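Quick one:
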Amino acid sequence: MHSCFAVLLQNSPPSVIIVHMTARPRQDNDKISPVTVNKKAYANFELIERFEAGVSLLGSEVKSLRAAQADLTGSYARVDGAQCWLVGAKITPYQQQGQSLHEPDRKRKLLLHKSEIRRIRTKLEQRGFTLVPLRIYFNDRGLAKVEMALARGKRQYDKRRTIAERQQKREVDRDTKKYRKR
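Output:
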């Protein structure tokens, strides 16, 4: 529910009331629906540590994201000096935009704290780590965010093991379903 309160101004006529609406605080059970999800990242990488970063976008890119016209397949993040960049993410040009269209797969600056960039850079210097974007979404304040993860590539036998574990869990859940209380 939204909370609402009215303020009666002292020097104004009694008919003038200012109403202030405050937004409902976000709770843990509220779902933030992602604009796009990188499904291959979950299948091809072992996710070690997750980060949330803001993205520097153009106005037409924000409108395209709101219309869910983005693709993270094959994209990655890179640290150059003291800045972090999202490379290979495709945001299609907005249909109703005028003459100047944005480049769909340009590098986009990620907004992170210096300490986070330093921590990410030290992990990336280790062998086998990469920074993979998992999803793009709008937070409760309406800002575009990218969820990223430090990840290590899975080998083929790791992928098979993950599939086998998922199938075993599904079978156990199916077998124990009849014993659960309804």
